[in-house]
Amino acid sequence: MKKPSLLILMIILTLIALIPLGNVEASTPIMYVNPQISTVEILTAFQINISVSQVVDLAAWEFKLYYPNKYLNATQIQEGSFLKTAGQTSFFVKELTDNYNETHGVIWAFCTLIGQGPGATGNGTLATITFKAKFVGVATLKLAETDMLDSQMPPNHISHITEDGTVNIIGHDIAVINVSSLKTIVGQGCTMNINVTVINQGAFAETFNLTLYANTTSIETKEITLNNNASTTVTFTWNTTGFVKGNYTIRAYAHPVLGETDTADNSLVMSSVISVVMPGDANLDGVITILDVCKVTGIYGAKKGDQNYNPNVDWDNDQRITILDVTIVTGRYGQRDP
User: Fold this and answer.
1) Are 159 and 54 in contact (CB under 8 A)?
2) Is residue 111 a contact partner of residue 79, using CB atoms and an 8 Å limit?
């Protein structure tokens, strides 16, 4: 068997050297919000960094950071340490305002090395920003119009990607989400039930007072304890003794807890108005007639949950139509509301 010639061996080695070893690409530099997800308590100050990773020969950088001014107040920006590893720097804050527009604030900053020489390489912090959390919710920190330059003359733009950040603001937040009643009519001196649903939208267990009002008069106050993210429905019983006949707006009010800032949803008005009337006057005409008698006798024996049950003629509020409801009407037959 003949040995391969030296020329053939050289050709084989050359071909092997030209075979690609895989799709190995240089890492792409990243400018990003660090940490990318933050959880902070409302009304506290906190800091985030604008950082860079996998960059080579960085001599200058620039960014704008947009944030929702409903949730955050920007108070300060300071230069980070990364670019200083390559020499003396000049740091500029072009804009720092919570009022960029109606919904957002903006921070516009840039920094450059002074003099000539190689730039910074590796990973590090470009700037540190201090915020104050104003409102419970989720705030997005959006990087835009970013730029990075190398130390060449003239400088070259360094291709890079960006990664935004999210701030979860937790705190104290309770809300009234429903006020309802089966009745829209109640006899003067009689009782009715009103259901109020409250939710704890905050991050902590809360104990608070819940008050129900008829117009501006307090009906009752109850103390409620709720774990975070929990809700409950509370039943109030309104005794209309002492209330003049007429229409009433029913409102539930959850008294704010310490540290609560979102109080707009602490109060809720029931969608239907409640009429306080002479007992037995189911058709609101001011006189007890055969029509009122028929309304109650026609569904005699009906109870809550039955299709024909009418809570407005359940005058004694016991959740069923009984002889007592009938006698409340017939006992006033022919009476006129003065």
Assistant:
1) no
2) yes
